[in-house]
Amino acid sequence: MRIPRFTSIxxxxxxxxxxxxxxxxAQDDPLPSWNDGASKQAIVEFVEAxxxxxxxxxxxxxxxxxxxxxxxxxxxxxxxxxQLAFALDRVKALAPDHPEWKTTQPFKAxxxxxxxxxxxxxxxxxxxxxxxSHAGMSTADFEKIVTDWFKTAKHxxxxxxxxxxxxxxxxxxxxxxxxxxxxxxxxxxGGVEFMRPMxxxxxxxxxxxxxGSSIKTKYEEVNGTPVLMREAEIDFIDDKAGKPVGIxxxxxxxxxxxxxxxxxDRQMLEWTGAGGGARLMMLVFHDxxxxxxxxxxxxxxxxxxxxxxxxxxxxxxxxxxxxxISMKDDWNRIFADR
Amino acid sequence: MRIPRFTSIxxxxxxxxxxxxxxxxAQDDPLPSWNDGASKQAIVEFVEAxxxxxxxxxxxxxxxxxxxxxxxxxxxxxxxxxQLAFALDRVKALAPDHPEWKTTQPFKAxxxxxxxxxxxxxxxxxxxxxxxSHAGMSTADFEKIVTDWFKTAKHxxxxxxxxxxxxxxxxxxxxxxxxxxxxxxxxxxGGVEFMRPMxxxxxxxxxxxxxGSSIKTKYEEVNGTPVLMREAEIDFIDDKAGKPVGIxxxxxxxxxxxxxxxxxDRQMLEWTGAGGGARLMMLVFHDxxxxxxxxxxxxxxxxxxxxxxxxxxxxxxxxxxxxxISMKDDWNRIFADR
Lengths: 338, 338
Prior knowledge:
homodimer; alpha/beta; Rossmann fold; seven-stranded mixed beta sheet; 15% strand
């Protein structure tokens, strides 16, 4: 009896310790929605390198700036950009005051739900839609319109509010970086005042760390009260070569880490990578039609109007050591549970 | 003997306690360069009101935004703006490459040290000087030029580097606010890339919390390396009605406290004051010719080209409960000791 009893006690202890260790590991893993693999490893190694005091790649907390594209990097951008869905809803809501829209493009296409015609409106038509839906009110009124829309609008495929369609692995990454002394910024081609009402709740990113495209605002007094009126004029396009410009304008420091998913993020990653010391540049690749969407045209996936990832971006990533995140292989879940 | 001894012990104790309390008070005073008076009291009462958890005026730390003008509010702006002194020095340094400047205004006035002609160059001439001295190089090169200039340039009257001419009472105020959970921002008509190289060292304010006027930058690759080139085109003028516009653009939140010293700060204080809850708006009034400068034209002081405080601003301050800081009466010292 003695040996078996000893063995069983030992076994129980070993098994207990094993379970305890597993539980502790699972609890301590800051990136539980990431599968083990090269992407997750690259993130953890980078963070350890820049936060190890006395290490060769140590970066002072004040310079730990990480920038994130939004559409397609932090949340869903298909079948159309969330902000475009908002603009279409706004045009429909405002249509009763604009009878001429019934016969004028691009508004007619919106009111007729004519997706084929909408696909052809081009940049000029898109700007017209944005101005008609985003300008002509105060910043406070626009914030309320956006906030109200987020409360009711739902994604057509996932049937959930857009604010629930942040990628859970990226939310974990944002938190992991902040827990390690990083400041996390959004640097998006989307409208800054469309994003700010939701970024704190969805990503933990406060308004002052959201950089985006903007229209001009004008300071006015209305009945003795100062307001900022949103004007139908482009102020800044925070996309492509505009991203490093926006980063310099708003932050005044070069990021040490940058995350994107499309050709619009190329220059942000180039600018980030051109700094000295340890750097982390990553691109989310949408290769998961089952759980989300699959689009390229890189690697032979279908081309798209929204967030295209061209082959030459894939080639540049390979050439420059930017890491490509496979949604299908690197993420064990896409969204937080309901 | 007994009673006297007891008395003397008691006295020693009381006196000791008194000195101890005084020392503690002096040590605990976060604003030692401020004289006791209405200005200091208003600051302390405001900070206590917005930081008292459960109080009627409590403000969550995320919304404790305080904005500060720079020239004349945080540091000296006479006899001319520091950035103009920099521009004049740059024009002189670049003159050998521009022989035509010897006969062309506004450059001729600079090279001849003709202050009377300089006073007449107007806004167009000023923009020409700024573009000639601030554009045509990369952001990295400009940062180095500015940093080097600050190392050697000295103020003509005080014979000290400009970076030593921050107002010590305002530096204490910045620290006091930050110690109470505020984010402190500079919102200046001055050039953002002229200020950022010195704001952390001088004011404890990092680059991303500096808002200012800017010229456009353009992303380019030079010999395979990405650079941001500074172009001779105005991007944004962060002055007067531009200040609330800049605050909304960069911060996306309304400040609860704002500090200025001239007509250029009027709209920033109006915008701040128009929000709900406890607010603190203050204007520095330069009424101390002995220790610094005295200029208005408010209250009959001499008018000026640099940071004028007009009478109607003084009237608006009185009307709206903005507090006017008398440099002469409220500050027991102006600059930190050498």
